[in-house]
Amino acid sequence: MDPLGVAGALGAGLSYAGYTVTARTLLLRGAHGVTVMAGMFGVGAMVLLPAVAGADLGWVLSARGALMVAWLGLVATGLSYVLFQHGLAGLPSSTVATLSLAEPVTATLLGVLVLGEVLGSLSALGITVVVLSLAAMALPGRRPRAGTRVAP
């Protein structure tokens, strides 16, 4: 076990939880959903900007590179987080964060089914845990409390 890796994973999990709770709080206070997402991604981009300092970004200027950036920015990220904020507008943060765990499961299964990747036993165990957790969240009695819906 790599302590730095574990610390990084814990930091990522805490950051995601903080992001989710903060976004939900802003939505409950009446902030516009797209504005909340754009603001958070803008702050994230500024924080990460030093990581690309000195990197060769010439590929972005090619047609293929520009299309890749547009696809990843507008569809893969933009659209998915607009949908994410709609979920946050009507469900508790814990439910939305748990449901978002289906994303890596989907990506892994697509890798196996479409790209012919091999599913290892640890990955299969992880998928099983996530799917069982999502099923447990769907059980009766796990409904959000009345009055928690906000406008997207």
Layout of SSEs?
Blueprint: H1 3-28, H2 33-48, H3 63-90, H4 93-99, H5 102-115, H6 121-137
Helix pairs in contact: 1-2, 1-4, 2-3
Outline the low-pLDDT stretches.
none
Q: Estimate the mean pLDDT confidence.
A: 87
Could you state the oligomeric state of the chains shown?
single chain
Q: What's the helical proportion of residues? A: over 70%
Structural class given helices, strands, pairing?
Answer: mainly alpha
Portion of residues in beta strands equals under 5%
For the report, how would you describe the main beta sheet? none
Order of helices and strands: HHHHHH
Q: How far is the first residue's CA from the last residue's CA?
A: 42 Å
General form: globular
Beta strand count: 0
Overall domain count: 1
Query: What value does the Rg take, in angstroms?
Result: 18 Å
Number of helices: 6
Describe the 3D structure.
This is EamA domain-containing protein. The chain crosses the membrane at residues 33-53, 65-84, 118-139. InterPro entries: EamA_dom, EmrE-like. It comes from Ornithinimicrobium tianjinense. Pfam families: EamA (PF00892). This protein has 152 residues and is an all-alpha fold. The protein has one domain (3-137). Helix content is 71%, strand content 0%. The protein is built from six helices and no strands. It has helices spanning 3-28, 33-48, 63-90, 93-99, 102-115, 121-137. The longest helix has 28 residues, at 63-90. It is globular and about 50 Å long. The mean pLDDT is 87.
